[in-house]
Structures are given as structure tokens and as C-alpha cells.
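User: Structure please.
Assistant: Input sequence and predicted structure:
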Amino acid sequence: MTLYLLSIHQPQGERPPEPEFLAGVMRQVDELHDELTAAGSWVFGQGLHGPETATVLRVRDGDVQITDGPFVEGKEHLGGIVVIDVPDLDVALAWGRRYALATTLPIEVRPFQGGAGA
């Protein structure tokens, strides 16, 4: 088994105003969580606060400087993550595809270094 990170990329700005749309998305995400748990592949997942809550630590001249805001300015930001433990990339991509359909957001699928999962 291999650990994969499913990164959920969210556009900047307000969330969709229709409460029923967001409720439907969350229902589908909860169903995916339940299926991953039942399959023994769920490791961890959580949404993130907006990029305006970020703090960046950066080394400059041997000292660590702390600044507010995201590391990268962009039209999208990391909105949440899911870590799964699955046999291979094909299975990880299948779960990623389901998250993309459920959330209507871009999903980046990447393996962790080191091979086997927990």
C-alpha cells in the first residue's frame, strides 16, 4: 500500500451562495469518507481555513522571519487535504476523480516519499 495526498484546490473568493449546493457537496464528501474508511484506505483528511490565515516562516541571513499571508499569491489556494493508503496510482486517481466530481474542484494526487503506507 502507498500513501497518497489528494490536495483540494479552491478558487479565491466567496463560496457558492446556494446552501443546497454546498450541502450536496458535503454529503458526497462524507459518503467518500465512509467508503474509504470501509475499504481501510482512509488515513486523514480536513479542510483548511483561508489563505489569509496563513503564517509563513522563511530563513533570511541565518534568521527566521515571520510574515502574514500565504506563501504564494494565486487565484486558487489549498482548501483541504485527504491522505489515503491505496495499492497504486490508478486506485488513488480513481478516488481523486470521485473527489473532483463531488466537489467540482481541482484535485491534485501525489504519492508520499518513502513508498509503503502506515
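The radius of gyration is 16 Å.
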